[in-house]
Structure formats: C-alpha cells, structure tokens
Design a protein that fits this description.
Elements lengths: L1 E5 L2 E3 L5 E8 L5 E9 L6 E7 L5 E2 L7 E6 L4 E6 L8 E9 L4 E3 L3 E5 L2
Parallel strand pairs: 2-11
Antiparallel strand pairs: 1-3, 3-8, 4-5, 4-9, 5-6, 7-8, 9-10, 9-11
Length: 115
Amino acid sequence: VQLQASGGGLVQPGGSLRLSCVASGRINIITRMGWYRQFPGKQRELVASLPNGGVTNYSDSVKGRFTISRDYAKNAVYLQMSSLKPEETGIYYCHAQSTVGVSYWGQGTQVTVSS
C-alpha cells in the first residue's frame, strides 16, 4: 500500500486547511485510514481515524474543529481542519491499517500555523 498526502502549508491562526491522501497498491487490504501528527521533539499522535464503514475516532484536542472523511471510490481520506492553533504546527501523516494490523504511512505533509 502506498499513500500520497497533500494539502499542507502555511495558514494563519484560526484558519483552515484540508489535507488529502490517496491510497494505491493493495487497497483491498485496508481496513482503516486516518491521520497522525508529530510536533517537534514529540512522538507521533493520532489525530483522527475512520475504519471502513465505521465510526470516526478523534483526538480530544481536535474534536469539533477537525473532520475526517473518506471517499471509498477514490481510495482517499481527507482531513478538514479549522480554527487551527499555532501549537498545531507539525508534520501530518496519512495512515492506513491492513486486515492483519500492519501500518502504512504517507510521506508526511507540513502544516504551519503562524501569523
């Protein structure tokens, strides 16, 4: 499984960004897709995930501000982010999990929240 993410960039505090990620390869083994992020000097953390046909799971820190969605026809996952904060500056990674629990990662996309 290969994951290609896009959509990062520079945004002002309080602004919005939409991240996109498209999966290719053995997409039939994917059971869950989502987004993680990593702040400088910190471990990677879950932002949001959505299992196939399932219920969304959000980090408490983003509930009400971020929305994850999937387009199964396009093998894509999206993360709509709003009310962004400077402390949310970091690298955002697309993630997919297989039927046997193997994780696949995209290349990471930089999100910078700054005035």
